[in-house]
Specification:
Structural class: alpha+beta
Number of helices: 25
Strand content: 5-15%
Helix content: 55-70%
């Protein structure tokens, strides 16, 4: 009895396996018919691709690829006969064919019981893939222009990666395909658009030899490493960028900015000297050295090298601007020394004063020595920094009840890393570092209360910065905008902006045009309503939550 049952089970298993193989062959037959039913063929092969009996057979994936090849042929036939056809289906069938034929080849390369490899599919499938490979570019461009960058990335990536497929090795595509660097650049761009840092790092190196896009691919790769927190790789990418693209300011400026901002001014100076040794008349290198002296308050040296940069390029606007600023700072130093002696005991007694600043005036400049903590009593203050190219980068605004200048003061830094400028007429309480640096002689309760309140303000600012970090790490631009609006909306479902669109774009780590387009998109979808330039009304709160 047991023998009979065992035989019946074995028979059923063989029959089931046979049925699945029958489905594979039937799927191919249907797809190859004069009037093919591709929907039926795809359904049959999908079942076989999942079934344990057939999913690991090369033939299954060969037929799957064949079906996609036939779909493409039928669509192209319609195009030739001027009949309606689906352009995207044409390209998607090619992409799927590549996927299935590659899987087929992998399985066919597995040695049999005798240790031999008998890959009967490779030659024909490789020929089909080579013939359709240019359409991977066309498909990628089609999706890229539709702003469907995730799909575009798949096409460009497949084109690039196929150059190293074992089944196409005899064609030496990586060596002979002159379009490969350009398409790798497209893949890098698409990856950047969807925020895929790993894909950027993967494809950018293959794009570096592209004549037009190489330097931008290098920039995107450097930015990707920085975004991932890999400082070592980021610095290495910047150094490589300097060597590969010496005419591009991005790499040198960012590298020196890093050294300067991380209190490695000497290392930055060494690097600048090394670059000047190779190219003594390079205006950027001269400007950078001047900039470093500028931040170190070695004004005479700064003036010398700014003038050298101007001599190298008489139309170098940033150098003219900064040499004027240095002369102004020198004059301010002379004025300060003429009116105030910091060693005078009376200076220490003036621990807190209220000062007013007209709109547009600087409370302190980048490079000034941090001696005070500032509290805003009236108005608004713009905080920002000036990069190596002389460009002002606005970072944030502070208003009534908020403080600024604490980072440099309490970390005992030698100079401010940025500037503070009156956005409107402001009234500021300036508290001397002496107030915090020593013990109150009378041990009064007011002193400790002020310190406690100050710590509370710092905590609130830290919380505010944490919220900003949450917004900036919320994914793509749509998600960041949604997160910002949800975080800052009032009980009446309105967001009242305390900054202009350009500053909001900086806050959200994007460009102003991109932000404007996103806001208009959300408005068109009926999620928000733009009320003038300073108010955004949330009209569908639940849908906005879904966007986050």
């Amino acid at each position: 009895m047991k023998r009979v049952l065992f035989s019946m089970v074995l028979l059923m298993a063989v029959s089931f396996s046979f049925a699945q193989m029958k489905n594979v062959k039937e799927a191919k037959s249907i797809a190859n018919d004069v009037k093919p039913n591709f929907k039926q063929a795809e359904q049959l092969i999908k079942e076989a691709m999942k079934n344990p009996e057939t999913k690991d057979l090369a033939e299954t994936w060969d037929v799957a690829g064949f079906i996609q090849k036939r779909i493409n042929e039928e669509q192209m036939k319609n195009a030739f006969l001027r009949k309606p056809y689906d352009t995207l289906k044409v390209y998607n069938s090619i992409l799927k064919m590549y996927e299935y034929y590659t899987k087929c080849d992998d399985l066919a390369q597995v040695p049999n019981e005798k240790g031999k490899i008998k890959n009967k599919y490779r030659k024909a499938n490789a020929s089909s893939m080579l013939a359709e490979r240019p359409n991977l570019i066309n498909g990628g461009i089609q999706y890229f222009n539709l702003d469907k960058n995730k799909e575009a990335l798949k096409f460009f990536a497949t084109y690039v990666e196929s150059a190293s497929y074992p089944m196409l090795a005899d064609k030496e595509i990586a060596k002979n395909d002159t379009l490969l660097p350009q398409i790798a650049y497209y893949a890098t761009l698409a990856a950047d658009r969807v925020g895929n840092k790993d894909a950027i790092i993967k494809y950018a190196p293959m794009a570096l030899s592209d004549k037009d896009g190489g330097k931008f691919a290098m920039q995107l790769m450097a930015d990707a490493y920085k975004a991932k927190g890999d400082t070592v790789a980021w610095i290495k990418a910047l150094e490589e960028g300097i060597l590969k693209f010496p005419g591009n300011d991005y790499f040198f400026a960012n590298l020196v900015d890093y050294y300067n901002s991380s209190n490695q001014a000497s290392k930055a100076m060494e690097f600048a000297d090394r670059m000047l040794a190779n190219d003594p008349n390079n205006k950027l290198y001269l400007y950078v050295k001047a900039y470093l002296y500028h931040n170190m308050k070695e004004y005479d040296n700064a003036i010398e090298f700014y003038k050298k940069a101007i001599a190298a390029d008489p139309e170098y606007a940033e150098a003219y601007s900064n040499v004027g600023l240095v002369y102004l700072m020198k004059a301010q130093d002379y004025a300060d020394k003429a009116t105030t002696d910091i060693n005078d005991p009376k200076y220490a007694e003036a621990q807190a004063v209220v000062k007013k600043y007209p709109k547009g005036t600087y409370i302190f400049r980048q490079g000034d020595a941090p001696l005070k903590l500032y509290f805003i009593l009236e108005g608004m203050v713009e905080l920002g920094s000036i990069n190596l190219n002389g460009k002002i980068t606005r970072s944030s605004y502070v208003t009534v009840g908020e403080e600024f200048g604490e980072v440099e003061l309490f970390l005992r830094q030698s100079a401010y890393s940025g500037y503070a400028k009156a956005k409107s007429e402001v009234s500021v309480l300036e508290v001397s570092q002496n107030f915090f640096g020593g013990r109150c002689e009378r041990n009064c309760v007011h002193h400790s209360k002020v310190v406690f309140n100050m710590l509370q303000l710092f905590a609130e600012k830290a919380e505010k910065h944490n919220r900003q970090i949450e917004v900036l790490t919320s994914g793509n631009l749509r998600q960041r905008v949604a997160a910002y609006l949800l975080e800052n909306c009032d009980p009446d479902y309105r967001v009242r902006l305390h900054m202009n669109r350009e500053d909001l774009a900086v806050y959200l780590n994007t460009t102003r045009p991109s932000l404007s387009r996103m806001l208009l998109t959300l408005q068109d979808k009926g999620i928000i309503r733009l009320v003038g330039r300073k108010v955004i009304e949330i009209t569908d709160y639940e849908r906005l939550q879904e966007e986050e």
